[in-house]
Amino acid sequence: MKPRSLFVLMLLAAPHLQAAPMQWGDIRDGSLYLQASAADTLHLRWSPAWQSDANHEQLYLVAPDGLLRQQVDIAANQAYGQDSLPLPAADGDYRLQVPGYSFRNFKLGHDSATRAQFEPTKVHFSADVPDGVELYFRVAAGEQAVLAGKYHGGVSLLQAVRLSDGQKVRLKLERHEQYARFDQADLPVADHDEVWRLSMGGSGKVGFWLDGTANLFAQDLHQLHPLQWTPGRVELNLRPQMAGPSPHLGVALPYAQPPQSTFELLRALGPRAANFYSFVDVIKAEPTREIAFRRLYRETFGIDRDITLLAGTGRRPVLEADPQTLAGLDAWLADSAQLGNQGLHYLAFADEPNLNYPSYAVFAGYFSQMLERTKAHPEARAAGVRIAMPVSSRLLDGPFRVGAGQRRGIDWARQLLAEHGPDIDALAWHEWMVRDLLATRRYRASVRAAAELVGLDEQGRPRKALLLSQTNISSGPELSPYQQDTHYAALWWASVVFNASQDGLLDMLNWFQAADEPEYPKGMLAQRSAQHFSLKPVAAAQQFLRQHWLGEVQVLDNPAFEVDALALRDGSRHSLLGVAKTPRPQTIELRAPSSLCSSRPNLALLGPDGHVRSASVQCSADRLVFELPGETLFALTWKTL
């Protein structure tokens, strides 16, 4: 029997796909690179996978020069659908990005003359496959390639066969207690290029990838080829108008006094905002235990914006307005009054209620009782305490649970505002699982939607503070070390900061969390021992941003798709921050309202090696140009005369 090609599905039932003999199907997370020497059309179909009715999605077709050629927007109510994406003949590779975590099965069809390669994500599952899948990959001479995979309840065996001599490598995929663990096997090194055939044992969800060589797979071995990252060009236009204040950047800090050994590292991060938990059962028994570390964070580290989430020990999220919870609330408010009026301290009565509470009605009843109790402490408000809600799991889409379509954060926020609008000071939410670098633009959309919900005042400012109080690449323990512990996290955090800050509407943006925990190793600080911590790559990015962070966001026109940028200003001081999110080298051209040349601009770059270096710029009149390597952060700074 002829082996099945990757993800072959019953697409031929669709008449418009009969002229597209190569099919890829049930892709959930990854990149499909397409080299079209003749004009072609990429046919796209989708169907529900899980919770699709609670989640809208975006797919991106990127042209060989790095510009966004087409964005496919799929509304939550579009369970099934299809689209056609033209591929004009071009040099280089198109890229169709299916960003994870996706909630639909995506099926793609194109002409077999178009050379196609699939790049799966690492650790997370990339597809849902039938039995008998076969793929090809190439390992260059001298490369120590590693075949890796993770068991996700579907495919349980990977077998690679070297075509030149039939040598086999078998990799059994085991079930691991920790999500970040996976299985891997070394492939033999050769003194010339080798092509391997990969077979998958079993069906269903599959996680597979290559390390030490190009992570690219083809259905036809003749379609394997090195990707071409054609250099790109980005034209930025800096306008004189100000968009609004820049947000306070911060981290989630522990419910305790941090070790002295972490003080210098926390200073390096330079947080101006923080997320805390307060455990109502603990603070009821020890009413003043939080004062010391709250004062330390405020006075030693200069954190003047924070948000506290009430919970039970162990971050138990569901509370009732019972005597214990009310006593814990009273104790926290008394502590806040004792600490005095230094900054703003937002209080949330529950952690991600749309994920955790039985229903909106149950949470709304609890919220109402807690709000009335808080209003009975006017001295707390005088000390800077403010009410934040609903602190949802995600804003525009549903949380990761059954019935998510009735649990969207923005819907719960709308209802609470209708019931308690005058007593609510801030709209807060947590954003998870926008894991793809090309999808971080969704943060800007969520901030804009939050601002639209609360409305703008006469100065164009949101009527309620907007707090993106927790975010991370992934939620809970479902973490990929390729993302969390590498330069990828630095690129991701910078991109999220720039997108969320772009319109000057956001007040707070916090990375979750400050330091790794055993079950949740997704901090900015890695814990090496009980008292020894070190900066992870995302911390290097945070330090880089803080060094160049200024108080106001200036309007910036940026047509690029693979480069994000943010303009900041404090009086005569200017910072232009940016990040190249792909390996493509870019030429950046900046046009500004006044001459930059006489201000002697400085350019700093932070690349994958984690080191900051200076770079040169070319400047004439109102035009400044510099070269930006791929996967690199930059900071252009100057002072107007």
What do you see in this structure?
This protein has 641 residues and is α+β, with helices and mostly antiparallel strands. It folds into three domains: 4-223, no CATH class; 247-549, TIM Barrel (Alpha-Beta Barrel); 557-639, Golgi alpha-mannosidase II (Immunoglobulin-like, Sandwich), CATH 2.60.40.1180. It is built from twelve helices and 38 strands. The chain has a ten-stranded mixed beta sheet with strand order 35-34-38-32-31-30-19-33-37-36, covered by helices on one side. A hairpin with a 5-residue loop joins strand 5 and strand 6 (68-74). Helix 9 runs parallel beside helix 11 and helix 11 runs parallel beside helix 12. The longest helix has 17 residues, at 323-339. It is globular and about 80 Å long. The chain starts with a strand and ends with a strand.
Features of this protein?
3 domains, 8-stranded parallel beta barrel, 10-stranded mixed β-sheet, TIM Barrel, Immunoglobulin-like, globular, 641 residues
